Amino acid sequence: MADLDGNGHELHGGLRYPWPQVPDSGQVREVAEGVWWLRMPLPFRLDHINLYLLRHDHGWVVVDTGMNTAQTREVWEQVFTQVFAGQPLLAVICTHYHSDHAGVAGWLAERFRCPVYMTAAEYRSLYVTVPAEQAAGWDFLDFHCKAGMDEAQAGELYQLIQNGHFRPLHFNSYRRLQDGDRVRIGSRQWRVVVGRGHSPEHACLYAEDGSLLLAGDQVLPRITPTVGVHATEPEADPLREWLTSLEHLRSLPDSVLVLPAHERPFFNLHARIDQLQAHHQAQLDRLLASCEAPRSACELMAELFPRLSGRFDELMALGETLAHANYLMAEGRLVRELHHAHYRYRRALLAPAAEAAGGP
Question: Is the torsion defined by CA of 29, 198, 200, 193 positive or negative?
């Protein structure tokens, strides 16, 4: 039986969860005045995304949309009838460009002739897509082969990301969100708080009465957002950007109710930030300890993620492994060398003065 506090909130892992049970797939729950939580199904092991429906004057605003699938559209049709009750959708807000967040933004916007709001970098990223009928380019193959794969393995990953589920519907215009912007929706004033690392310019929405944070994927309970390096930008340092963004979010009150894109809404934002920082520091230490002898990225991935179940997990795990490696290279603690078409990573040799001083 779960531990409960005086308000009936479940206590677990240092966080407080006001709703021990989640809504059924495709169902909604009111979490604050004028704010509904919609649990949208996904066709993965992570089987849902949380979308949020905000009451606004004579209609509705939605935050994120679900993937580009027939099932997603079916759920939205139910929402139009059962929740919106014939009132219009006035705007779509996409926290970021990932397919589960922006997958049917174009369909919703076209149907209701309403604008889509997102940041400029996220809108541009929608158009950096893998062509559906084109073989993998040299750069994609080169990236994955240097990580330790052969061309056949890299080709399988390319086929995976060509799936239509990973291809949000495009739309031809948007309204730009920027860090610090204020947006009134219903009775609340929301402030845009931009995070980076998980995606280029992820927009969170903070209710300025201190009550709510629509966090998207930037802060999740129990699981960690994917922070990865991929073929589109092989020398990126997204982990540094994401850790910096966590400190930006720490300026918000710990008492805020965090409404995340996955798992359950929770309290204790600052405790969760501490946990996420500690997790990635442990991963950095683990990777560095694995590099006493030169190792490929795929070998390091097996150290950091020993239990993978399928190609999609492998794609995400390799990206995360490389994000940690790039972070350590930027710190001067890891060295990367090309050896027989593969990169090998090894721990950087310390200068003699540092060794004598017993430096790390």
Answer: positive
Secondary structure element (H or E) that encloses residue 299, with its range: helix 297-304
| Integer-rounded Cα radius of gyration of the chain | 22
The per-residue pLDDT for range 166-186, each reduced to its tens digit, is: 778 889 999 999 999 999 999
Please report whether residue 307 resides in a domain. Answer: no
Distance of alpha carbon 231 from alpha carbon 344, whole angstroms: 17
Query: Is there a domain that residue 332 lies in?
Result: no
- What would the two tokens of residue 22 be? 């989640």
| Domain assignment present for 275 | yes
Question: Under a CB-based contact definition with an 8 Å cutoff, are residues 167 and 180 in contact?
Answer: no
The contacts of residue 262 (CB under 8 Å, 6+ apart) are: 46, 48, 49, 50, 217, 220, 223
Angle (CA) 195-197-201 rounded to 5° is: 45
pLDDT digits (tens, 9 = 90+) for 207-230: 999 999 999 999 999 999 999 999
Total domains present in the chain: 1
Does pTM top 0.90 for this prediction? yes
Determine the Cα–Cα distance for residues 163 and 129; give it in Å rounded to an integer. Answer: 11
- Tracing tokens 């720490």 back to the chain, one arrives at 250
40 closest CA partner among 89, 77, 15, 92: 77
Identify the bridge partners of residue 342 per DSSP, sorted by sequence position.
339
Alpha-carbon torsion angle 6, 8, 14, 17, nearest 10: -150
Show the domain range for 219.
Answer: 3-129+167-289
- Residue 224: what residue type? T
Residues 6+ apart with CB under 8 A from 243: 197, 277, 280
**Beta-sheet pairing, 89-93 with 59-63:** parallel
**What is the chain's percent helix, strand, coil content, to nearest 5?**
35, 25, 40
- The CATH number for 80's domain is 3.60.15.10
Q: Is residue 341 part of a domain?
A: no
> In the beta sheet, which residues pair with residue 259?
214
194 token code pair: 């931009």
